[in-house]
Design goal:
This protein has 233 residues and is mainly α. The chain has one domain. The N terminus is likely disordered.
């Protein structure tokens, strides 16, 4: 059997491998391609997603009954966002968002598994909030990678991970207060998520002037979500 086809096949594999390494081996080079930067709307998408998340949080909080107000659970420890902090401010807001999102998931899962009396409509809204803020978290991460390229690789301190054990302790401390129910603590967390979304909007270029609320396409898939999903969608 001739070895020529085998040699040719190996050479093709080597060429493909080398080409692939050049294309994606250096992730920084891939992210910072000038053509991608010029043509991409990542900043616009981030601002829009942040506004959408804030509006949905506002709609949820507007329906809170007097018995489930935001009082009685204390404050959540978060990073302060100073005015005009721009890229670092967005990074800090992202860290706050990820912490609050973890707290939200923890409390919401506990409530669902413990048999708390939650209507189907409220359960759907809580699931939707988690989906929307998870999407925002992913989008902000993408934005921060993008901006480091635009700013000539300017570094900003981003919390790469969260201390889940410490956050669980913080949740437990909230619930040690007699007036703090799981429902109330969840409302406090939603308020924090709403504020984190606001901080993201105001640390982006041009603030809110260039961003607008737009429909989430997924909302059209479930008739039961259409009214709640409408953020002038």
């Amino acid at each position: 059997m001739s070895t020529t086809p085998i040699v040719s096949f190996v050479l093709v594999l080597v060429c493909v491998h080398l080409h692939f390494d050049v294309a994606v081996g250096d992730s920084e080079a891939l992210w910072c391609d000038e053509t991608l930067i010029v043509n991409h709307n990542v900043t616009q998408r981030t601002g829009t997603d942040a506004l959408n998340a804030r509006v949905l949080a506002d709609k949820y909080l507007a329906r809170i009954s007097p018995a489930d107000t935001l009082n009685g659970c204390g404050n959540i420890s978060l990073i302060d966002i100073s005015p005009g902090s721009e890229l670092q401010g967005t990074a800090n807001a992202s860290s706050n968002l990820n912490k609050l999102l973890y707290m939200y998931r923890s409390v919401w899962r506990y409530m669902a598994l413990s048999g708390s009396k939650i209507s189907e409509a409220d359960s759907t809204k809580l699931d939707l909030l988690e989906t929307v803020f998870t999407r925002l978290s992913n989008q902000v991460e993408w934005y921060l990678q993008f901006r480091r390229c635009v700013c000539n690789h300017t570094q900003c301190t981003v919390s790469e991970s969260i201390d889940k054990s410490r956050i669980q302790q913080e949740i437990q401390m909230m619930h040690l207060q007699p007036s703090c129910t799981h429902t109330k603590s969840l409302n406090v967390i939603v308020q924090g998520l709403r504020n984190a979304a606001t901080d993201i909007v105001y640390t982006l270029p041009d603030k809110v002037t260039s961003y607008s609320v737009r429909p989430y396409q997924m909302c059209r898939l479930r008739p039961t979500l259409q009214i709640y999903c409408v953020t002038s969608m």
